[in-house]
Structures are given as C-alpha cells and as structure tokens.
Design goal:
This protein is α+β, with helices and mostly antiparallel strands. Helices cover about 55% and strands about 15% of the residues. It has a 3-stranded mixed β-sheet with strand order 1-2-3. Strand 2 and strand 3 form a beta hairpin. The longest helix is centred in the middle third of the chain and has 31 residues.
C-alpha cells in the first residue's frame, strides 16, 4: 500500500525537545490540528485530538468492514454461480466426508 504524506503548516511541526519543554501548549494546539513531532529531522510521532483519533479509527473500521463485505460478496457470487459445493464447504470450515445430505438429516 502506498501512503500519501500530508501537507504540513510550519506551526504543526515541532521537535521532540519542544514537546518535552512545552507539552501543555502543544497539546492545546493538537485540539485544532495534528502536531507532527520530529526526531533527528524525521517525523516519528503525531499528536492529535481524541476526536480526530476516533474519526480515523472509525474510518479504518469502516474500510475493514467494507473489505470484509466485498470479499463475502465475491464468495457468495461464486456459490450462486455454481462454482462448486466445495466453495461453500470451505467457507464454513467443514470438510466433505462424502455423506449424502439426505443421510445427514434422517
């Protein structure tokens, strides 16, 4: 997966030493915009508000759920198209022992 780097305002970039000295101030700033913390000229930490974190977390959950449903739809379509009975068995984790369905429900 390729990641896109966000564009930053100069006020959003602080050094680790600045965070250590002025954490309260930086924490207040993070309520409005994420703060990017650099260590040796490399961004290694982001401070953001809890609301921003929840928004990101929920977007990630939605994306994961959408991927799950997309995969389930592909598998369901394969079953509907008669791909094979084995596909249905693979989905449920049941191995086919060759016993006819009619015998299973006698």
């Amino acid at each position: 997966m390729m990641f896109v780097e966000p564009s930053l305002k100069p006020s959003q970039l602080v050094s680790t030493s600045e965070v250590n000295k002025e954490f309260s101030k930086i924490k207040k700033q993070a309520r409005n915009n994420p703060i990017f913390v650099s260590n040796k000229n490399q961004i290694d930490t982001v401070i953001l508000s809890y609301d921003d974190y929840l928004a990101m977390y929920n977007l990630a959950l939605e994306a994961q759920e959408m991927e799950y449903y997309k995969q389930a739809e592909v598998e369901l379509q394969a079953i509907r198209n008669g791909a094979s009975e084995t596909v249905a068995l693979d989905l449920s984790g049941i191995e086919d022992d060759g016993t006819p369905d009619a015998e299973l429900f006698e």
